[in-house]
């Protein structure tokens, strides 16, 4: 049996400004550092067998304290990185062409931002990484959009509905997914840890 705890990295300055932060390597702000500390405290209690992170600095900085608290070595995997948002990267939705935004809001899986990564491909790479983890209890630190896409893929929710069915994953929160013979089961979602 494998239990995977999916955590979103701590807050960044771009998050506060409402900027799309996909592949841009943005660090944590002071609140994000506090949230990383809360995840480390959680990991000291939960004692995951392994901690795996996206290689982007905001995820690594969030995961490193948790790995140390759990007494394990942090491992990174590029398949856990955030979706590339193409022309939206580093911008607010209000700064984009209204027609592009309208198409994206209608079906974000079929109409990703131009120049960005296909959401289905992103979900596939992320879940392929998860499939290689375990057995045991594993903490995975990653990003808002790719976590929601992966959860949709694991739970049989159409990717087109990821923004509606899973509106957001909060910074520093933990979602628990169990994996057994019958597939994935959502045990908890978006649980805040404080910070």
UniProtKB/TrEMBL annotation:
According to the lineage, what is the superkingdom? Bacteria
Cite the CDD domains for this sequence: HP_PGM_like
MF (Gene Ontology): phosphatase activity
Please give the InterPro entries that the UniProt record associates with this protein. His_Pase_superF_clade-1, His_PPase_superfam, PGM_Phosphatase
The record, for Pfam families, names: His_Phos_1 (PF00300)
* GO cellular component term, pick one: cytoplasm
Q: Where does substrate bind?
A: 21-22, 58
Catalytic residues per the record?
9 (tele-phosphohistidine intermediate), 82 (proton donor/acceptor)
What name does this protein carry? Answer: Putative phosphoglycerate mutase GpmB
Read off the lineage from the record: Bacteria, Bacillati, Actinomycetota, Actinomycetes, Streptosporangiales
